[in-house]
Amino acid sequence: MKDPIRKRFWRELRDDAGKYIALFLFLTLTIGFVSGFMVADGSMLRAYNESFENYHIEDGHFTAAAPLEDAALDTLEQETGATLYPLFSIDRETDNAHTVRFYRQRTEVNRVCLMDGAFPARDGEICIDRLYAQNNELSIGDTMAVSGRDYTISGVVAFSDYSALFNNNTDMMFDANKFTVALVTDADFDALGELGKRFTYAWTDPDAGNTDKERRDRADALLGAIAGHAVLTDFVPRDQNFAINFSGDDMGSDRVMFATLLYIMMVILGFVFAVTTRGTIEQEASTIGTLKASGYTNGELLRHYLALPTVVTLVAAVIGNILGYTCMKRIVVFMYYHSYSLPTYRTIWNGSAFLLTTVIPVLIIFVLNLLVISRALRFSPLDFLRHELTRRKSSDVVRLRRGSFLSRFRMRVVLQNLSGYLTLFVGVVFVSVLLVFGMMFRPLMNHFKADVVSSMIAQYQYVLKTPVETADADAERYSVQELEYDGWEKITVYGVQEGSRYVPGVRAGEVVLSDGYMEKYGIRTGDTLKLSDPYDGKDYSFRVGGAYHYPAAMSVFLSEEDFNRTFDREPGSFNGWFSNRELTDLPEEAIATRITQSDLTVMADQLDDSMGFMFPLFCGFGFVIYVLMIYLLAKMIIDRNARSISMLKIMGYHDGEAGLLYNRATALVTAISLLLAIPLTVLLIKWIYYAMMKEYAGWLTFYVAPWVYPVSFAFGAFGFALVTLLLMRRVRHIPLSVALKTLE
pTM for the full model? Predict the structure, then answer.
């Protein structure tokens, strides 16, 4: 014979349809999004990792001041065991001042993935990076003007060694809007001439090893061998190449972040489930008391009340995974393809994603409900029949003697539902983080760009290959050298004249640091700063004398005399000019780099372009979760107090008045939670932001626009107003008979 208690499942599901639908949507959306992310992330990360072998990606590259003779290349290969491949390139500008880096077709190393179209087969044809083409609305068959010559786009590609489009390895951020790599025929490459040609050689090393230390030791040995045959202008082992590694590192770190997000959500949701189920047990106390008195054990009742939360979670997890493998993954794929120049990928089954998004969430919900429900069922049959489901004595109850009846009534509602309101507070804090995180970034980018522009050293910074004089009297010479901090962060060291009009406040005997540099690494005035030269292995120490407001780059400023003495330069030597006007008398062949406003704001521009569409998603996702959570907890409070609401109606209160007594109590707690969440949100956002930014080269100072917090509060108030409208319908459907039926 079928167990009678099982017949209650469908009735409970029907009677509490609103609660279970809300929980189901909550779970499905969360698991679906995270599952989609992990499936897409895992598939694309696997394609990225496989690209090292499939496209024969280099173990590193170096750039020489002049091409190496064949005999020197053979000697180097014999001495080091590495294989060297020439990968010469030439940079040219388009009519709109974008940089195009030309290469010949590659067949041996750093091969290219053709995404659409065809490789150049005739002179005048060009293949460009897919993401650059997308960002600039260029299509196959379009004409592209570069350095006065028109090229026809024959295809769009992904360079295996440029998955992130860094123009230089020292740049703070890649730039997929104004920089692209390109392939042309050998004849077209030769026609570009010798001006500005980079004599770059990639190497592959079968003995590179598997650990970072082994690879670095091999790279250092190669550097020593090359230094005997060539004058180096650049040397980049693969593990230090941002153009290759940045996208892979980003995908790996995102996975941890989203998994953490999921588990936080599951714990919050588990408590919501547990609190609402406990509310159901309190509503059905008389029935449970009767069942216990009839012989049902705690274990049987526990299994009964665990069944629905577990089944709902399992079904939501399965459907969420289906959504993840279909529509949700497309959002993540679009996100990555909109940020990085990745090769084609195929979706693969991800057992880890299934474990993280199905098995673990079900276990979290099950364990939390098990703990709460087993504790709620520990009372005797008589306690359930009397609705005495607390160990508190009457003397422990808080006495409310002040205030009007209505205010004391609302306070009693809050005290009786304290566990639910505490869960609400935790949820509000978490959702506030999502809302603020989604709203803060675009203003932060705009604030950063405005700050960079207002604090520019000069409108033009020229870095020279060789010292060249200018006739412009307003220009000021300087020296520049690049060093490393903490083994990876590129630091620009400036030597400026004492009394400089462009960089005031620099004195002999000490250095000043850009304030972002000091903030990122917690450096203080008086500290000793240690930097290293990655090419010759020398270490340098400087005493920090203060900060200089220069958000555009991680920089160190010292006097020209100290600079030349530190780096063994001749007195009076320099390799750059500051100027607020373009220096037209500098020969192009002498200019290594020209830095203008757009170069300094590239980090913010690229982050805004590649991640800007994600910020509204955070806001929307957070708002939906907030509304569902408020609805669940507020509905639970009304359901638990159905008898009291019914009694109020008998006493003459109409539906609106009875509902507002409870909704206003919840509104008060929600408002207090939203206000208290603001300082906690600031702390959490700062912690997340600092942890995230430390993974990037450079620094964007933390900034939240003043309007963000009031708007997040307004979102919360609007969401609660929506929930109140829904719950007033619930109050209207509570009959007067509820109070009479439960009278003893």
Answer: 0.67
